[in-house]
Amino acid sequence: MGSGIAQVLAISGHEVICRDLSEEVLDAAREGVDTGRFGVRGAVERGKLTSDEADAALTRLTFTTDLDAAVDVDLIIEAIPENLGLKIRFWRDLDEIAPADTIFASNSSGFPIAAMAAATNRAEKFIGWHWASPAPVMKLAEIIRGPETSDATVDTVVRLAAAAGKNPVVVQDNDQNWGYVANRVYFAMVREANRVVAEGVADRAQVDQLMRDCFRWPSGPYGMVAGAGSGWS
Length: 233
Ligand SMILES: NC(=O)c1ccc[n+]([C@@H]2O[C@H](COP(=O)([O-])OP(=O)(O)OC[C@H]3O[C@@H](n4cnc5c(N)ncnc54)[C@H](O)[C@@H]3O)[C@@H](O)[C@H]2O)c1
What we know:
This protein is about 45% helix and about 15% strand. The chain has 2 domains: about 1-170, NAD(P)-binding Rossmann-like Domain (Rossmann fold); about 180-230, no CATH class. The chain is built from 10 helices and 7 strands. By secondary structure, it is α/β, with parallel strands linked by helices. Strands 3-4-5-6-7 form a 5-stranded mixed sheet. Strands 1-2 form a two-stranded parallel ribbon. The chain is globular. Nicotinamide-adenine-dinucleotide binds near residues 82, 90, 131, 132 and 228. Nicotinamide-adenine-dinucleotide (NAD) binds next to loops.
């Protein structure tokens, strides 16, 4: 997800530093942004970008394993693996070295904003910015505010997402209610589909066919799970 998010923001005119743990991962990310299936060269071929815009976007991207070279920025978007302990350690460390006014945004798929914000001394600058894969294509910008996220932080991230061509929708996450609406509704559907199959009412293929035919969805719940799990390859 990280390189796709970086690509979108670079096309939108921002200088972006991509930081990962190894040069191999960064090489793959650079290649993906350039000539990958959803990269800028493909966007030129599809008439979505001019060649100059693609070149300009690439010059705005830097790739590094050096954390210190990546923290002196206005906004940090985290897209490390979905593991709460990992994310808490990540944000705790970042909070110590990033400038005090840097906004922290997590691309988590479901961890409470308050839990990650509590690892920092900047809960008012902590927010969820949930993207969908592939980031250059999908319009999703689910902006998840925690109990202490400030209006100014929300406004900044909404403005960035809209300017990048996404459809920002701000939702509230708190101690009682899970604020990741897209995934809440999606998993409710998957749970019910699993129940229908477990009861012997219909098999998976039948559920998928019925949902496509009834609601004109491009895919039923099981097709969705397979597609999302494989990055829609
Ligand atoms: N894949 C999706 O469809 C999707 C959709 C929405 C949200 N997300 C969320 O995005 C996040 C990333 O998902 P992904 O599928 O891109 O995972 P991924 O495993 O493909 O990529 C995670 C990257 O983080 C790097 N990393 C690990 N620890 C790091 C650290 N401390 N500092 C910097 N980099 C580190 C890894 O080397 C890896 O390249 C997860 O929270 C996931 O839930 C994923």
